[in-house]
C-alpha cells in the first residue's frame, strides 16, 4: 500500500480518516471550503485521484486523473485560486507532475511544487539524466548540476520567478533568467514586483551578506533573519560580543542579551521578542510591551493592525491584546481574530476545566482542541472542535453549543497518519461552521 505521510499537504487540504471506507479507497481529503472532495483510489497495483466537486443547486460533478504505479500525496499542493490539486506520481521509473488532474512530462525525479500567489503558475525542479531542470508552467526555464535546497520565490504580482542553482563550485540566484554572482550558498530569497525590491541572503565563505538593490549588508555572526517581500524590508539579529543587535533594513533598532522570533505582520510591522533583566518582552512595530517569564506566539489580525499573545507569569497565563491585559487563566492557547478583528477567541483552562473563550465569554467543555478555534466569515459566530469524557465523543461547538457531530475515529485516524492534522483543523472547522450557519440565517 502507498505510504501516505501527507505532511505538506495543505495550507490546503483538511484530512479525514479512511478506516471505514471501501477497500479501494485509500485516502480522502477536502479543500478548506469543503466543496471539493479528493479521493485516492486503487485497483491492484494502479492508483489514481478522483475529484468530486459539489456545486450548489447543480449536484456533484466527478473527474479523475490517469492511473499510476504510485501517487505521492505527501508533497501535494492545493491551489486555492483554481480550486485544484497538484501532486507527484510515478509510472515505472519515471515521475510526473499531475496538476488539476492533467499529467505533465516524465522525469527521473521531481523536487518541490510551487504555485504563484495568483495560482496561475506552477514551478518545480526535475531531474533528467545528470542535470536538474526548472520548469514553469511545464516550460524549461533553467538547467543546472543541481538546485539549491531553497523554496522557489514568486513576486507578489506572480509575474517573476526566482530560485538558486549550483554550477561548478558556485551557487547562483537565477531571477527572470538572469544569473546572479558566484557565492558559497543562497540561504533566503524573496522577490518584489521589481528587481529593486528583491531581497537575497547569501553566504560568501562563512559570512552572511544581504543583497538589496545595489547595496550589500554584511551580517557577521547572524543569529536570526526575516524577509518581508511585500513591503521590501528585512530584519536580522547579529551577535556582537555578549549582546545581540537587531537591524531593520540595515538600521540598528534594538540591542539586548537576546533578540528572537522575528516576524513581519500582514501590514509590514516587525514583531519580535527581546530579553531584558526583568524577563521577555514582545515588541510590536517598535513598541515594547510589559515583561513576562515567557511570551507565546504573537498572532495578528488579517489586516495586521491588531495583535495578541499569551504571556506567562509563574503559573498564570495572561492573555494580551494590543498591549493590554484581557484575561488570566491557568493556561491559554490557540488565539484567533475574527476577520474584522473585532473579536478574539482562544482556548483556556482553569485547573481541570477547559473553555472556549469568545470575546471574553467562556464556554465550558471537557476537552477543547486549541488549534481548531475559528470564526465564521462575518465574525458573528465562534466555534471549535470539542470533546466529552463520557462516551469520548468529539463535536463542533458553535457559540458554546455542540451542534455538529464529529467521529472521533475520523480525527484520531488522521492524526495517526502523521498528517499534521491538528494544525489543519481551523480552516476545516471554519468551513463546517459556515455550511451550518448559512441555511440557519436564511
Task: Kindly describe this structure.
This protein is mainly beta. Helices cover about 5% and strands about 55% of the residues. The chain has three domains: about 1-105, no CATH class; about 110-220, 6 Propeller (Neuraminidase), CATH 2.120.10.30; about 335-440. A hairpin with a 2-residue loop joins strand 17 and strand 18 (about 180). The protein starts with 13 loop residues before the first strand and ends with a helix.
List the helices and strands and how they pair.
Layout: E1 14-16, E2 25-30, E3 36-43, E4 46-55, E5 59-64, E6 70-79, E7 84-91, E8 94-99, E9 102-103, E10 109-115, E11 122-128, E12 131-136, E13 139-144, E14 146-147, E15 153-154, E16 161-167, E17 170-175, E18 178-179, E19 185-190, E20 199-204, E21 207-212, E22 215-219, E23 222-228, E24 233-240, E25 243-248, E26 251-256, E27 258-264, E28 270-276, E29 279-284, E30 287-292, E31 294-295, E32 299-300, E33 307-313, E34 316-321, E35 324-329, E36 331-337, E37 344-350, E38 353-358, E39 361-365, E40 367-368, E41 374-375, E42 382-387, E43 394-398, E44 401-406, H1 408-416, H2 425-441
Antiparallel strand pairs: 1-2, 2-3, 3-4, 4-5, 6-7, 7-8, 8-9, 10-11, 11-12, 12-13, 14-16, 15-16, 16-17, 17-18, 19-20, 20-21, 21-22, 23-24, 24-25, 25-26, 27-28, 28-29, 29-30, 31-33, 32-33, 33-34, 34-35, 36-37, 37-38, 38-39, 40-42, 41-42, 42-43, 43-44
Summarize the structure.
This protein has three domains: 1-106, no CATH class; 110-220, 6 Propeller (Neuraminidase); 334-442. Helices cover 6% and strands 56% of the residues.
